[in-house]
Write a structure and sequence with these properties.
Oligomer: single chain
Distance between the termini: 130 Å
Pfam families: EF-hand_7
Protein name: EF-hand domain-containing protein
Helix content: over 70%
Order of helices and strands: HEHHEHHHH
InterPro entries: EF-hand-dom_pair (IPR011992), EF_Hand_1_Ca_BS (IPR018247), EF_hand_dom (IPR002048)
Strand content: under 5%
Keywords: Calcium, Coiled coil, Metal-binding
Radius of gyration: 40 Å
Number of helices: 7
C-alpha cells in the first residue's frame, strides 16, 4: 500500500483524532471488522503498541503488512476521504510530535487559508508548519540526548558511589584491625608488667626465706 493510502487508513483508525491509535480506537476498528475480543490485544501488540500503549504512524506503517495477514484493515478505511489538511500531511510525510490541541489549531487555520484560495499565503503557512515540525523534532532529539546524558551521569555517579562505599568499608576494616592490634599490644604490655611484678615478688620471697633459714 502506498504512503497516501496508509496515511488515510491511519487517520481512519485514529477514531478520536489524537494523532495516534490508542487501544480504545483499535477496539472500535476491530469491532467493526468483526474481530473476536480475544484477538484484539494480540493484534494491538503486533503493531509494537505494548511498548508505549499506543500505535504511532511509524509503527503502523512498518508493521501494516504483517498485521494485514490477519486483520483486513484496508477494508475499514476504504471509503474515507481526505481533507486538504490531511493531504498536506501526506505530502510532507512527517511524524507529528505536537500536542492534539496544537494539531487541531494548525488544521483549522490550514482549512481556513485553503478555503480563501490564497496560494501564496497557503504556501507560506505550509512552510511555517514544516519548520514547526522540524523544530519539534529537534527538540525531541535534544530531550532524548539529554535523557541519555542524564542516565549516563547517573550510572557514573552510582558507580562512583559504589566505589566510595567499597573504599569506606575497606578503611573501616583497616581501622578495626588497627584498633584490635593496639588493644592486643596493650594487653600484652599489661600482662608482661604483671608477670615481671610477680617474678620480682617471688624473688623477694625467696630471698627473705633464705635469710630466715640462715
Amino acid at each position: 500500500m502506498d504512503r497516501p493510502s496508509l496515511r488515510r487508513l491511519f487517520s481512519a483508525c485514529d477514531v478520536n483524532k489524537s494523532g495516534r491509535i490508542e487501544y480504545e480506537d483499535f477496539t472500535v476498528v476491530c469491532r467493526e471488522l468483526g474481530v473476536p475480543d480475544t484477538q484484539v490485544q494480540t493484534l494491538f501488540e503486533k503493531f509494537g503498541a505494548f511498548e508505549d500503549g499506543y500505535i504511532d504512524y511509524r509503527g503502523f506503517s512498518s508493521r501494516f503488512q504483517e498485521v494485514s495477514e490477519t486483520l483486513n484493515l484496508a477494508s475499514f478505511g476504504a471509503g474515507s476521504t481526505q481533507t486538504p489538511w490531511e493531504e498536506f500531511v501526506d505530502r510532507i510525510d512527517e511524524e507529528f510530535l505536537l500536542s492534539e490541541s496544537v494539531r487541531e489549531q494548525l488544521a483549522d487555520l490550514y482549512q481556513a487559508i485553503h478555503s480563501s484560495a490564497n496560494t501564496a499565503l497557503l504556501q507560506a503557512y505550509e512552510e511555517l508548519v514544516q519548520s514547526l515540525i522540524s523544530l519539534s523534532r529537534e527538540n525531541k532529539l535534544e530531550c532524548e540526548q539529554l535523557e541519555t546524558s542524564l542516565k549516563r551521569a547517573e550510572e557514573i555517579n552510582n558507580s562512583q558511589l559504589a566505589e566510595l562505599e567499597d573504599d569506606i568499608q575497606q578503611h573501616l576494616a583497616q581501622a578495626e584491625e588497627r584498633v584490635r592490634d593496639e588493644e592486643r599490644k596493650k594487653m600484652e604490655g599489661i600482662i608482661a608488667t604483671m608477670q615481671r611484678k610477680h617474678d620480682d615478688e617471688v624473688a623477694d620471697l625467696h630471698a627473705t626465706a633464705d635469710r630466715l633459714l640462715r
